[in-house]
Amino acid sequence: MESVWNLARARWLLLIAGVLLGAIGGAVYSGTITVDHRSTAVVYFAVDRAKTASDYTAGSSFAQSVMPSFAQIVKSPIVLDPVIEELDLQTTARNLAGRIQVDVPSNTTVMNVTVTDTSSLRAAMTANAVIRRLDEAVRTLSPRGEEDNPAMRMSSVSPAVASEKQSTVNRAIFELLGALGGLLVAVAIVGIWESVTRPVRSVSDVENVSSTPVLAAITFDGKRSVAPVDPRGSESAAGTLVLHTNIAAACGKRGGVKSVAVVPVTASDDARAVAVDLALVMARARDRILLVDGDLRSASVADMLGAESAPGLAEILVGSADFGQTLQVRSGLDFVAAGRAEGNAAELLVSTRLKPFLKVESTRYKMLLAVGGAAIPVADGATLAAAAEVTVLVARRGQTTRRDLAAAVDRLSSAGGILAGVVLVQRRSGLARVLMRSRKRLQDGRR
Length: 447
Prior knowledge:
Elements: H1 2-10, H2 12-32, E1 37-47, H3 53-74, H4 77-87, H5 93-97, E2 100-103, E3 110-117, H6 120-141, E4 152-158, H7 171-197, H8 203-209, E5 214-221, H9 237-253, E6 259-264, H10 270-284, E7 289-293, H11 301-305, H12 313-318, H13 323-326, E8 327-330, E9 333-336, H14 345-349, H15 354-362, E10 367-371, H16 380-387, E11 390-396, H17 402-414, E12 419-428, H18 430-446
Parallel strand pairs: 5-12, 6-10, 6-11, 7-9, 7-10, 11-12
Antiparallel strand pairs: 1-3, 1-4, 2-3, 8-9
Helix pairs in contact: 2-7, 4-6, 9-10, 16-17
């Protein structure tokens, strides 16, 4: 149930889009549906000039016997062509016959003529016109009696009347059905996508892939999780504080680890944000911390701290600068930028100077945090992990796939790195942040 809820939270935009598109589609479809109106005229047939009871009986039997023939005449061109001409209908006798239903109740001489049309008024006018033309056809085709008069007589019992209440399509039903259909399609798409990509969404997903623990689950509001002044005032900073505690405990169990590499599974700024926020929290706890940007491909940590991007680690690795020349202090935090990597960043990271640098400088601090490049598909993260004492792997909830997480764990292990745990990161969208602030204001107002 938890995994379903996490999936719904992660893909809620797609689900809402499916509902909206389905509702719009239902509304559009309802507008294309033609509502048919039915109008019925009732007529009675009798034999003319019957004088005795036996004449009436014989005439009634005769009338019943010819009723099927008159029913067929209703849909014949002899009746419908004059109707089309009289009402100026834009159709043919054949098409009009398809919209006429003739019903003769058993053992009667009554005929019901029903016309179906998109207009209630036109349906009634057509039915009455058909009756009038049928009367003319009956007079013409009926057997002749005395004085050459038609033997059959037709009388109108109930003329067709247009309905005062026009039938309409219930758009709400179509919109509801469309919304439901759109939701089902969106759920199917999400299900297929999830089954193919299998992204990491929960702590249990991480534990199923790797035996290493989840050190913390951090939610970022935009690019940062910790407020520059007071991290305790930020709800998102709670995850970073948990990570701080768990990192300290993990390092203590390993005999006082001093250097920790923070590496993303794939290329992203998640590991940089995690490392910067963690370093700031540690520095505010009056711990002496050194933060090193080991992601020579992006070199973006300096921008996050408002520091200079060079000289930095790249210059140390090539031997053109020493530690003192690259050290910067920002927000009570000692920082070494990535520097300018001339040529291949991967070649610089495999330098024999990297591991000694981390080992020597970490002895001067409570802890050295080194931000690394991606663990896969490049080898930058694995190289830094091998140089540091332990490594923290950063995975993005809903984007990092289980296959990539497993590959990153194998890559770090093969390189000789020691994985302390995984940090599960989630970034709140702009809309989610607005909704969260609105909910918080509402709660504060109730208090």
